[in-house]
Amino acid sequence: MCNDKRIGSPDPSKLQCYKCSSEDEASSCRTGSIDNNSVTCGRSDQICLQYYVSTSRRDTWVRECAKPGQCNDLGNKYGQSLEQCDECEDDYCNNVRMSIASNIFSRQ
User: Sorted alphabetically, which SUPFAM superfamilies does this protein's record hold (predicted)?
Assistant: First the structure.
């Protein structure tokens, strides 16, 4: 038996992506086990994005719609603090488990 959950966007020219942000390493935003935080991208040229920024003060995991090339922009913004950044072009493709950086320094 199939359920009636729609897969993909009602508008086939726009992607459905997961959208979340968390500083909790145990969160579903980091692990990718998200099932109800989705968004239809606002423009047809947008892609799905997931990235992870690690600093001495906090780790942040983000999933959202973005423009193509956003990983380059984030790399310029965060430098070596950008631990992971992935762009993809399929509905709900930004659901991959993200890593945790092994920092030498303890957080305070």
Answer: Snake toxin-like (SSF57302)
Of the candidates 17, 80, 74, which has an alpha carbon nearest to the alpha carbon of residue 54? 80
Given a cut of 70, whether residue 4 has pLDDT beyond it is: no
Structure tokens belonging to residue 26: 């145990």
What is the reported pTM? Answer: 0.83
| pLDDT higher than 80, residue 20 | yes
Closest CA to 29 of 66, 70, 64: 64
Other CB atoms within 10 A of residue 79 CB: 9
pLDDT in tens, 38-80: 999 999 999 999 999 999 999 999 999 999 999 999 999 999 9
Residue ranges and CATH numbers for the domains of the chain are: 16-88 (2.10.60)
Fill in the amino acid letter for 89: E
Q: Residue 86: how many CB atoms within 10 A of its CB?
A: 16
CA distance 5 to 84: 30
